[in-house]
Write a structure and sequence with these properties.
2 copies of one chain form a homodimer.
Chain A lengths: L6 H19 L5 E2 L7 H5 L31 H11 L6 E3 L4 H14 L16 E6 L3 H9 L3 E8 L2 E2 L1 H10 L3 E6 L13 H9 L8 E5 L17 H7 L6 E6 L11 E5 L1 H11 L8 H11 L2 H30 L6 E2 L8 E4 L5 H10 L2 E2 L17 E4 L6 H26 L1
Parallel strand pairs in A: 1-12, 3-4, 3-6, 6-7, 7-8
Antiparallel strand pairs in A: 2-9, 4-5, 8-9, 10-11, 11-13
Keywords (chains A, B): Aminotransferase, Transferase
GO molecular function (chains A, B): transaminase activity
Organism (chains A, B): Kineosporia corallincola
């Protein structure tokens, strides 16, 4: 650790960082570490979809002409593939459009505008409502709440999931808290995996709100980065056993399995929730794009097919995560200026820099052509009170660009970190 | 006309109808005239889509990788094809998911939950609001209003569109009337085409509500059944010229052009409306299925390609409409028991039977295995006060089934109609 360094040593380190920085500035970099997008070579893995379902192929297993209207629940054979992946019984799992984000958004819309099972009133008629937001978390989740004027209460994310002492206390006492966001496996952006105990508590905890919902965004269910296929406990099953079947909304999609823009989203829940969902959905849609669902069912085959396909992704992005971690270690290890997560799956690495430094680091990086997700994006309303969390998305750049970008980022951390430390002396 | 027949003649006609009916009952028919679905041979016309965009083909004209996230507005080249078709400037036309119905539904959602351009408040905060519903109309439109508790005020549909004397009077005096449904060309179910004068009045009329919207569902823009390619006036252009650009929401889709379940929906509006729409949509979606849009752009080519494709549809469904009209004429012509529309396009024929007879006709038909859209479906809340309108959807059955079904329907009209007339003597 360098935290005990004197002013002279710090000045030398800062000078060195400044020199590196101005050298980088001269290179005219144009690099982007912002969004969790698959790279082109990952998308290539699913290019078979570009000619599927194939000439004159349009019948579902049950004989349905997928080209025509109908089939609100989505294609049975695709739901069968993803039921075990998402831990939802087939009958309670719907296959929808090209995005799970829109399903989460629409879950709020439906709950705002029509009474949820268990609710006394529509959310829009209940006065101000609140949601728990484990932090760091996913900016697009928070944007949905913000858009509907739903207050978010940040809850610290521990290594085993949200701090359940805080969660259980808050939901027990405040009936205006209507739900919690959760990315239970390889969480965005920390890679956190919810422990079995956390899932059990979420399933069983008493809530003051009778219409409490857990938005279980299982976006990275099969997105492993190690040999360990991490499993999580079955929230819907545990909640059902505990008499709280209706509190669980499960979301998932193939966006980071097949094509990010042209995949299939899924919604799973209790029988009562599904009935409620379909009765609302039936006013909105005559059915999802069943051909795209047939295309996916043909391409993936079964759950094992999904797992096998994800191994190919891992072969492509594993080295990117490894390189990121290696460079962070080489550049920042032992400096005391940063810690970072070492995720076993998912799409992100979280870099934690000294308090008050994240915004500056992101700004300095931008000045030399390295775009990072805005500091604060991992927190509700874009406000990280400690200003210390930076999300790194290693998948989209080429290996070469990624390494250059992480190098540059590390340099910015040293620059800003040593500057701060000198000031504080 | 047989309206002046005596009891004896009527009894003879009724006996004959009864005989026909019981003969039909013995045949064990299983026929369906309910929904406006394309038949399999129409879907076959677009089967090229089943292998498009084609191996290794995923770049949009501007170089975008359509497989990845992004592109909230939808694919430029597809929007260019449909801009002239839907009479909306390309920059103000968005290409979306597989359904225009969901766009109409979501337009209500967004207007309910976020302030429309010109609105003082969100619709959800304005107390009870109302919509004008030209009748006969489309049941799925009415279901959306019903689902959100929006009161519908029926307005008679004349041969030139909604009765504009009623419309202009109501919207001028009642600020709680927030909009009107409109299917301006080959309307569902009457085939009505809005006259230029009607469109001009809709564009120019003063409205008490500053946030009034015309839901312009141009579902049958290119769905001609005759050599005449009927054109309607440009509502968005006229409204813009009249200083009411924001009052127009244009909807359209390829559902009855390519695949009913796997097409592309469109939303067009003023710049301010599009900005409002995208700012809300951006919280919901990272972009539509651009591959399906590329698939469609490749298949259709340009607006002329759309027109040429629709000629193939006409060749398949024109004979079905012709047969329906022929049988109605043979069976019911001169009986005084029914009138019907002779549409120049679209998907439906409206059959009008004597007051109080529609429900019975539909029930009698069901008893002998001919399923019709429920009587009343053409009116808000499923209530046709005259109980006289029956919607016929000729496209989906085979020609043979269709002819048998229309024969049976005509028999039921005679049965119910002569029974009623005898009772009234």
């Amino acid at each position: 650790m360098t935290t005990d360094l004197g002013a002279q040593d710090l000045t030398a380190l800062l000078d060195s960082a400044r020199q590196d920085y101005s050298e980088l500035a001269g290179r005219g970099l144009k690099l982007d570490l912002t969004r969790g997008k698959p790279a082109a070579d990952q998308l290539d893995l699913a290019d078979e979809l570009l000619t599927l379902p194939g000439a004159a192929t349009f019948k579902a297993a049950d004989g349905t002409d997928t080209r025509n209207y109908g089939g609100l629940n989505g294609l049975q054979e695709l739901r069968e593939i993803f039921a075990p992946v998402l831990q939802v019984p087939v009958a309670q799992l719907l296959a929808a459009g090209n995005s799970s984000l829109e399903l989460m958004h629409d879950a709020f819309v439906q709950a705002l505008l029509s009474k949820l099972p268990g609710a006394q009133e529509r959310w829009v008629d209940q006065g101000p409502i609140k949601f728990l937001a484990p932090v760091p978390g996913y900016d697009r989740h928070f944007s949905i709440c913000e858009r509907f004027g739903i207050e978010m209460i940040p809850v610290p994310l521990t290594e085993s999931g949200p701090d359940m002492e805080v969660v259980t206390r808050l939901v027990a006492e405040d009936a205006s808290i209507k739900g919690i966001w959760a990315i239970p496996k390889y969480s965005n952006p920390t890679g956190t995996v919810y422990s079995d105990e956390t899932v059990r508590q979420l399933a069983e905890m008493p809530t003051a709100a009778p219409d409490f919902r857990i938005f279980w965004d299982n976006a990275y269910a099969v997105h492993h980065l190690t040999d360990e296929r991490v499993e999580i406990a079955d929230l819907l099953g545990l909640a059902t056993a505990a008499g709280h079947a209706d509190r669980v909304f499960v979301f998932g999609s193939t966006s980071k399995i097949t094509f990010a823009g042209a995949g299939v989203g899924f919604f799973g829940a209790s029988e009562a929730n599904i009935k409620w969902w379909l009765s609302n959905l039936g006013k909105r849609s005559i059915g999802p794009d069943k051909i795209n669902q047939l295309r996916h069912a043909t391409f993936l085959g079964d759950a094992e097919g999904v797992f096998a396909h994800m191994e190919k992704h891992r072969a492509l992005i594993g080295p990117k995560f490894d390189a990121t971690l290696r460079i962070l270690g080489e550049q920042l290890g032992g400096t005391g200026l940063a810690t970072w997560t070492e995720p076993k799956g998912g799409y992100f690495i979280t870099l934690t820099v000294p308090e008050g430094c994240a915004t500056d680091v992101v700004a300095r990086a931008a000045e030399i052509g390295v775009v990072l997700t805005p500091a604060g994006a991992t927190h509700p309303l874009g406000q990280d009170p400690a200003d210390s969390v930076i999300r790194i998305a290693p998948t989209f750049p080429t290996q070469e660009d990624l390494e250059a970008a992480v190098h540059a980022l590390a340099t910015c951390v040293k620059l800003v970190g040593y500057e701060q430390r000198l000031k504080q002396q």
